[in-house]
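Quick entry between incubations.
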Amino acid sequence: MKTVAVARFLILVAAAALIIVSMRYPMWYMYLDSNNFPNGIGMSIWATHPGDPEDIAQLDGGLKEVNVLNHFIGMKEISRETMPIFRVLPVVLMIVAVACVVAAFIRKKWASFAVVILFAMISTGGLFALVYNLYSFGHNLDPTAAIKIDPFMPGIYGEHKLAQFTTYSDFYWGTYLLVIAFLLIVAAWVIDIISFRRGHETLTAPTGD
Amino acid sequence: MNWKRMLVFVGLGIAAVAMIGLTCDPSSAQQRRERVKEGAPAKADMAENALKVYVPPGDLDEYYVFLSGGHGGQVYVYGLPSMRHIRTIPVFSPYPATGYGYDEETKKMLGGLTWGDTHHPGLSETKGEYDGRWLFINDNAHGRVARIDLRDFKTKQVLGPIPNLAGNHASVYLTWNTEYLFGATRFSIPIPKGTVADVKDYKEKYKGVITAIAVDPKDGTMSLGWQIMMPPWNYDVADAGKLVSGDWWFVSTYNTEAEFIDGKPLEITASQRDKDYIIAVNWKGVESEVRKGNVTEIDGAKVFDPIKTPGYVFAIPCAKSPHGVDVSPDGKWFIGNGKLSPTVSIFSFEKLQKAIQDKNFAQHDMGIPVVKFEAVIEADIPVGLGPLHTVFDDKGFAYTSLFVESAVAKWQWGGGGREWKMVDKVPIQYNIGHIASCEGDTVSPKGKWVFALNKLSKGTHLPVGPDQPESGQLIDISGPKMKIIAQAFPEPEPHYAQIIKADKIKNVIEVYTKAENKNPNAIWDPKDAKVVREGNTVKVWMSQIRSSIMPNVVRCNEGDKVIMHITNTEEMRDELHGFGICGYDINGVPSPGETLSYEFIADKPGVWPYYCTNFCSALHQEMQGYLIVNPKK
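Done. Structure below.
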């Protein structure tokens, strides 16, 4: 049926658009509260770079302050240069976006499913990379640092305690948009499953009745 | 020795001991303090008063108070109603606490002088309302004026010493749209500066000037506008007109006797006349004459002669050696505060205009037309002894400081059917000079508080030896009776203050952003820190961030000129770093994002540590380096 074909096309293109738009928003942020930062400090992670949270104007400080504090305990500087993931992630996301568009044009049974698998693998990989990065930053502390603390795992989600800080981490629109994009791709796949079950012909190009 | 004689000696001895005992009796000091507390509130009222001035930690004061620092050369920022001292802004004096006067830029601003005498701060105004942009202040000592930017609360410009002007007391008193601020001679001298004439020729050879300093409306930059040549009277305190009188400027005078006699105190010479003058200047009119080129140039200043071109400068008789002259919020009245007469005199601006039009002059004194007193006086109010200054509230009352009587008089504003009359009086501790009320010299005073700036504190504080602080007292004027409810002890010596609602000072910054720091010598990464030798000059680009100074070793040779550019690369509020070199007179405190430059000759060989002087972090103690000065071979 023609409308289903158009819907599937639009859904996949929209998913591609959301993936690209998601790079304009932080995927994740962390706030650090302590008595001597009454408004808290914070940092965030985009697909492309680390940076300040969106509400930086209300805070006492952003990524630079986090790095200044981290240097006391010998943590590596959090920057685009020190974290290879920021070079990999945008490329990978672009590949998924392109794959969505390609799948939108290829009306084969496996096309949308392939994108689902690709996306699932990449997001699992991305999540793992983020966790690994946090882990490695918290565990590879410079042994010559002024202040020595036990290696630690920064919180990925929710509230945690770290020295004088309470940290709050959460995902943000960058991630949410990717989740929505993923759900859209799954929806396209579901459409494919139902349509192919009803018959191959409904998804072929309109015959010009 | 016979027993009678012995008895007399013993008796005298007892009497002497008793005398000593009586004079040392702690109860007499106690009694004196008790007298201070006379009129102090009953226990039950204390809690109520205390709550009015209590600002808990974390809460903010409602008003800023800018107090001049007198011969301290500074400005103090206080909060109202808490009376807490929040900050000192150095203006005319070096101030190691902020590093002011040590780096090249501020050193240049100070021009080799290490003190000034700040008297009358003036907030910039738009249509007679504080606009919260700049604070201007005068230097009575060297004839200068300065501008403080209220974006970062730092002194941005020092103008002067102004030519021909000695003892810039009647200053800054800016016009109601900040077109000009003013300065006027307190100590007449032969002009231009550097000319010598003996005091025997005081009347003929000595001159006063009134100086208008133009203010750039965009960035506040001050420049020398023009001057008015005046007789050798002492010009004391001033105020600019507003609204209907907006084109006028008023200044009080003493020593219109125009004499200075070798061996005879001026306090006698200058107090012979029953009346001296308030001078009214039509500054708009003088400005147009100056534009026409109707001036003589003296020492680089365009000087206008009001005798050659009459019609703009007039004298109004006022009893006796009047001190403050204050224009009412509606601009229709100006008030002379008698100082040596127990009255304030209220003059009508409208009547003044009419008298000028009708040429209703009693005489010309040294060429200046003197308007007939009866033609302009509206009312005399017997406020008490030694009236100096008057401020206003929002309910039609005025408050006059009484120096001799150590009191504040509250009187009702008359006119339009309302009676001019005294209402209330409250004793203060002690000898009040200026007085300030919330936005009390604008077109819309806010009432609520009056701040008494008292010259003497006389031990109303914990004993601190003979050098005693000044006294500032907060008077609650919200009720029908005035109540003194708090006291602070400012450093010497506040003369006048400006009180502005805190929310009128907007956009105060806490950090200089990278974009704002246009200094070509700024560096933003410790990796860019370097030492470069050029001949006998050693140039250093230095960075400061928690908790290191880079480079941490600077090597040079005895006799080298050392130039250091230091950038505090912090972007966090209150992360100030100090920079002091032990053994060298270098001390600075760059604010976050600020670059300061220092120049000195490395004339002492040896190893000289330098370090962060402003406590910054857990590893502040480690924030140090070495200046190694190799001796001459």
